[in-house]
Amino acid sequence: MIGAGLSALALAYAGLSALALGIARHHRQVRGHVGDQRLRKACAVAGWSVVAVLVLGSLHHWGAGVGSVTAIATLTAGALAVAGTLDLAPRRLPLYAVFAVMFAVAVPLADQARRALAGA
Question: Is residue 120 one of the residues assigned to a domain?
């Protein structure tokens, strides 16, 4: 249960980081230049895709009532974390987003391995 929440929070951070990189102002803040329009568009599409996976995953795991509240709460916490990163260490935002994706994938895999070993 805790692993699902941590994965949701990591997905929220990664998705909202990608959405921030899709905005010209934040892209310039992170990369030092505005960047190509196609790259910013790809970041925005990737960000919305990750947010959609987060919401659908939350609804599937916790049901409609708790899942919707969990999705909103994790998106809020992720937005605060991305805003803090943009304020304190903007150049590290892409690196932290990659770590968040790796963490979001690793936690369920570790939980599944733990359950398999406990059942063996």
Answer: no
Whether 48 maps to a domain, the answer reads: yes
23: enclosing H helix or E strand: none
Per residue of the chain (120 residues), give pLDDT as tens.
678 889 999 999 999 999 999 999 999 999 988 888 999 999 999 999 999 999 999 999 999 999 999 999 999 999 999 999 999 999 999 999 999 999 999 998 888 888 899 876
Q: Is the pTM of this model over 0.85?
A: yes
* Residue 26 CB contacts under 8 Å (≥ 6 apart), including other chains: 20, 86, 90
The alpha carbons of the chain give a radius of gyration, in whole angstroms, of 15
Q: How far is CA 55 from CA 1, 5, 48, 97, in A?
A: 16, 12, 10, 18
| Domains held by the chain: number | 1
Domain extent for 41: 2-113
